[in-house]
Amino acid sequence: MPADNAVTLPDTPDSYAKDLEKLEIELLLEGVFRHYGFDFRSYAYTSLKRRLWKRIQAEGLRTVSALQERVLHDSGMMEKLLLDLSINVTAMYRDPSFYLAFRETVVPLLRTYPFIRLWHAGCSTGEEVYSMAILLEEEGLYDRARIYATDINEVVLHRAKAGIFPLEKMQEYTQNYMRAGGKRSFSEYYTAMYDGALFNSSLTRNVVFSQHNLVTDGSFSEFNVILCRNVMIYFDRDLQNRVHELFYNSLAMFGVLALGNKESLRFSRFEPCYDALDPREKIYRRVR
Ligand SMILES: C[S@@+](CC[C@H](N)C(=O)[O-])C[C@H]1O[C@@H](n2cnc3c(N)ncnc32)[C@H](O)[C@@H]1O
Q1: Is the dihedral of CA 256, 262, 263, 266 positive or negative?
Q2: What are the pLDDT digits (tens) for 54-79?
Q3: What atom in ligand 1 is closest to the CA of residue 40?
């Protein structure tokens, strides 16, 4: 029977010295970056740590170093870790009030352009891309639009290209669509098959899906609209600033930047370069 003053084993997660854990996490992230090119070194630490431990426990491992050993020698484990760390939660017309504001505030500006380039950075499985394509179609703008939809993770991009979303989500998405100012019947845009809803392929006729890493890749075009919603929330302050610089350099003058509702330009050195078109919905316009 263990005595009251029994010493906890030093290699159990509970007794893990914080400094040692931090060192191991840094080494793991450095190894992942140098071996695979995925740079998570500036992601917000607390959330990153939680996700790493979930994977460690799921694999029946005991330390971050053990996970490092597995990840560096098994690309399948890297794929799993990429899914764990890249957090792909998304939805069609996520935050319907954002899409309503986009229709009312941004669409009139876009009407003045002969051609519109949009960039969905961190598009995950594509639900927001299909939502935007439908919105632009209904506003008569889709034929002059080109949407670039990018993500760090190729697995989610494959799903985005397929355009099949869970049928059981359609009720929720229909409500979101209506609250977002949708003008038709949402079911016009998909065909139900088994347990999936297959979205009309014409919705992606002007969409380019491509892998792009916001941490390590540069600008690749000049855009009229950049949407990067619920991505930078996982980055530390320094990385957020670097990504803001990338967006600033990728936006045409008077272009629009849309962020997620828990994100903002505050504390970014680029804040003075933008006017808020709708501060509540985090929609900004580059003015200098
Ligand atoms: C929570 S999802 C947000 C999806 C969508 N924008 C939305 O608001 O519903 C975050 C996405 O950002 C992507 N991501 C994370 N780090 C990234 C990076 N460095 N470069 C590009 N995409 C990244 C993830 O793979 C994930 O699909």
Answers
A1: positive
A2: 999 999 999 999 999 999 999 999 99
A3: 19
